[in-house]
Amino acid sequence: MIITEKENPRLPYLREKTSKLTTSPGCYIMKDVSNKIIYIGKAKNLRNRVSSYFRPWQDHLPKVWKMVSHVNDYEFIVTDSEFEALVLECSLIKQYTPKYNILLKDDKGYSYIRVTKEPYPRLQAVLQKEDDGAQYIGPYISSYAVKQAVEEANRVFMLPTCQRHFPQDFRKARPCLNHHIKKCMGVCTGEFSEEEYNDTVRQAVEYIKGGSQQSVERLTEEMNKAAEELNFELAARLRDRIAAIRKAADSQKIVDESMKDSDIIAISQNSEKACASVIMYRGGRLFDKADFFLGEKEDQSEMRESFITGYYSVREFVPKEILLDEPVENSELLEKWLREKSGHAVHISTPQRGHLLRLTTLAKSNASEFLSIKVGRTGREIEALEELAKALGLPKPPRFIECYDISNLASSDMVAGMVVYENGRPCKKFYKRFSIKTVAEQNDYACMAEVIERRFRNYFEKTDEGFSTMPDLILLDGGQGHVNTITPLVRSMGIEVPIFGLVKDSKHRTRAVATGGGEISLLKCRAAFNLVTQIQDEVHRTAITYQAKKHKKSSYQLELTKVRGIGEKKAVKLMTEFKTKDNLREATVEQLAAAAGVSLETAQELYNVIHEL
Fold this sequence. Notes:
This protein is of the alpha+beta class. The chain folds into 5 domains: 11-96, GIY-YIG endonuclease; 111-251, no CATH class; 261-376, Nucleotidyltransferase, domain 5 (2-Layer Sandwich); 392-551, Nucleotidyltransferase, domain 5, CATH 3.30.420; 561-612, DNA polymerase, domain 1. It is 46% helix and 19% strand. It has 20 helices and 19 strands. It has helices at residues 11-19, 46-54, 62-69, 82-96, 143-156, 177-180, 194-210, 212-228, 232-251, 300-313, 331-342, 354-375, 379-392, 444-461, 480-492, 526-560, 568-578, 581-586, 589-596, 600-612; strands at 26-31, 37-43, 73-78, 111-115, 123-126, 135-140, 261-269, 273-282, 285-296, 321-324, 347-349, 400-409, 412-422, 425-426, 432-435, 473-476, 499-504, 510-514, 519-520. Strands 12, 13, 14, 15, 16, 17, 18 and 19 form an 8-stranded mixed sheet that branches. The chain has a 5-stranded mixed sheet with strand order 9-8-7-10-11, with helices on both faces. α12 packs across α13 (379-392) and α19 crosses α20. It is flat and about 105 Å long. 34% of the residues are buried.
């Protein structure tokens, strides 16, 4: 969005003031007409940064556009270095909490682990502590950590999570699927005594409180004792439980001795908005998780940097290790600031492999799910668009994707299909079908060029609502040749939309994405690969369905020309007049004669042929 003097009459004054601004690093403080501070930012070059807000041609995000429209004046503070500007920015934001700076608010309550009071107790994650006689463990700050711990304990100790009541429901029905896949011990079979079951629950509670290592040590003692007492059945069950705990310790994320004091930060975004998730480890245990809605999307690296400074400027504790899902440009600057703030060394890194990568992936998944609630999309859809943008080198996840495919039978009935995906979902109201008009013989490149040229001509002429939106990404069903043919055409029309091809294998399945000079594999980006495959299948279905329909209509018209006196032009005239076969069948001899411009005798013969087809 471009800001004009209509929205802010002070723009000429602000531009004049900014032209004289220093190129030194520092902070700028935007104020509205009542002299209230509405935004604070930092820059390593004040003139370049501040002027970017007031340029006549500058395209802003909606949030920035709204802020600039309210700027009446600004102040600035020059610093000796960019680091000093960062420290000053954090201090000023904390002091004034400006309206248009990111507000890091998350709704926090307390959570508990409940051990229900019944003969066969259950482990549950709850938000309220009630006077029901149950045992409550907590409170915990993070409901996320509580849910993860309960799910992990139920899985490791194979405790039931169904709705059956014991011992009332013993042997009333067959054991459920969880028992058959060894996710539940099968209490419903009646083979476990109340004492034995409660002992298992006790072990699960100890596992939650003390972690896997303490549980293994305690269970090993119990197993050895049972073996000494020749209770080999109990010893075998304890042995299996120890093995399950050790196996879970390799993949679980609740207890991790290597993560003493660490924060894992990830940001998820669609084409317009972004959310951040912070997963916190303290003393080697998952301690808390917080989600933050960041509003309109900004530059990815800058957004992460702004989030880190805003998040830690209002927190007393700073961990020694911060893991990010994507790198930031000024990581050394941030480390220096955090070191001075906390009094200890802070290391910022972006894991590329191993269990640390799994943790950033977990944080990313949480951010995607939080964003999906905000924007009404699934986490999988958001993840797919993010992966696609990263793989193709796009500046942001594409909101509107258009995909084209050509379909023909040799040189007859040449058509094209266009499908549109909005935020990862098909937008069928914008689907289009094209009949090729200027290409006489089979030539996929020429057909694709005609279709793309017609599509964007309609965009500039504003003749059709379906063509009124400029896509963020164009996909062509074809390889490098299609991309190299269409890209110069689109650029000559002044359009800078990224263009890629979709390459299929010998079995007509999506294999890769083609650029003008090579291919990009999406095999490691499963969500993006599935989305691209879905788009390619959808555009192929659209094109081939239209081609089959048109061919069927052409064949019908050809049958009409077998009537003496009915040539190709008159057959087309009849189909244009009556639209469908059913309408032709309902027409009288007189109506057929009038439409085709033939005698009643010819019309009668035509009538007979139509009713035979």
